[in-house]
Design a protein that fits this description.
With 148 residues, this protein is α+β, with helices and mostly antiparallel strands. The protein is built from 3 helices and 8 strands, in the order αααββββββββ. The strands form 2 sheets. The protein has a 6-stranded antiparallel β-sheet with strand order 1-6-7-8-4-3, with no helix packed on it. Strands 2-5 form a two-stranded antiparallel sheet. The longest helix is centred in the N-terminal third of the chain and has 27 residues. The chain is rod-shaped and about 100 Å long.
Length: 148
Amino acid sequence: MKPYLIAILALLATPTAFAEKTLQQCIDTENDIARLQCYDTIFGHSKGNVVQSAPNSSNSQDSFGAERIKKDSPTAEVMESKIIGEFDYLEKGDKINLSNGQTWMVTESRTLRFKAKNPEIIISKGFMGSYLLEFPGHNRRIKVKRVK
């Protein structure tokens, strides 16, 4: 009985020792793609579809997330215009036509009460890409987004 037990333990220990050696080889690999391929080989996840990276991947990583940044054309932080028409208040969903041809929509759920006819406005950039509409001389602003 003991010889069989020793033989079984020897068979079980051999792949573990081999895997540890191979795993250490993967850990020591400098190239990211080669290291991933090594791990895939050990754990059987290799499907034959290997994506090769560009030799100089630091340039592609430097531009990651910068697709929306326009470096050559700086944008204004504030826009001044006039609202076309007369209104008593602004509430969520209201569309605002400006004298410069742009159309903006109120996105904030609170109501801004301000009775006026063709008033001057200032739209400024807010936090995380939002825009705020305000009337000069008044201390209230409301969130808007451009729709046209």
